[in-house]
């Protein structure tokens, strides 16, 4: 009964309006800091009424959290699976999936990077950082320690250094300033990211894994 009352007067184009708000929020939050973006701006960018933000999400904070979760959900699902089933090609598969998804939102990792630096002790950051750590679960991502324990890595490999190198491969291409990319003749396109994913996968295999696990593309 309560749900029925909540949905009385449901706006037309229900899912489309919600998707537009998610897209508008992602674009605006990527460009500017969270505190600088207003509900009215998000609605204007989405071409909807500001009241729909409260209708669908309840608040700007909840919209922001939903945007983070929904954009990164496919990656988070694969990361969780990698924790359950450690395979030699796990890091390479995760990187390729991550690149494929982020090719659609190439500036999204910059937003996540900013969120990681927020002061978690401030009440206004609580919901945002909660969403961030639901998506970026470091216990799930820390696969190289588990690979080391299973004997998959070379004896001289430090799993902490391997983990940090993996983070750099995952994130750095999306953090490089656009003007620097232009100077070196690189454009972050889906095609380029697929090429980069294959090359980085080979680097991981040949540099970190035992010889018996090496397989050429």
Automatic annotation (TrEMBL):
InterPro entries: Homeodomain-like_sf, HTH-type_TetR-like_transc_reg, HTH_TetR. The lineage of its organism: Bacteria, Pseudomonadati, Pseudomonadota, Gammaproteobacteria, Alteromonadales. One of its GO terms (molecular function) is transcription cis-regulatory region binding. Keywords: DNA-binding. Residues 38-57 bind DNA. Residues 15-75 form the HTH tetR-type domain. This is TetR family transcriptional regulator. Pfam families: TetR_N.
């Amino acid at each position: 009964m309560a749900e029925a009352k909540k949905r009385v007067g449901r706006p037309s184009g229900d899912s489309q309006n919600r998707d537009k708000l998610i897209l508008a929020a992602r674009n605006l939050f990527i460009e500017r800091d969270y505190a600088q973006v207003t509900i009215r701006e998000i609605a204007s960018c989405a071409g909807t009424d500001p009241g729909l933000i409260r209708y669908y999400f309840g608040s700007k904070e909840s919209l922001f959290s939903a945007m983070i979760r929904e954009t990164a959900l496919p990656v988070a699902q694969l990361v969780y699976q990698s924790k359950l089933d450690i395979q030699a090609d796990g890091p390479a598969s995760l990187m390729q999936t991550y690149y494929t998804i982020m090719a659609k939102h190439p500036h999204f990792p910059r937003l996540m990077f900013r969120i990681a630096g927020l002061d978690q002790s401030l009440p206004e950051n609580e919901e945002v950082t909660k969403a961030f750590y639901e998506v970026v679960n470091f216990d799930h991502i820390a696969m190289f320690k588990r690979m080391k324990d299973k004997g998959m890595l070379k004896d001289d490999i430090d799993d902490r250094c391997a983990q940090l190198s993996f983070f750099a491969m995952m994130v750095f291409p999306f953090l490089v300033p656009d003007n620097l990319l232009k100077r070196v003749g690189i454009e972050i396109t889906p095609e380029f990211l697929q090429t980069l994913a294959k090359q980085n996968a080979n680097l991981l295999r040949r540099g970190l894994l035992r010889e018996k696990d090496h397989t050429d593309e």
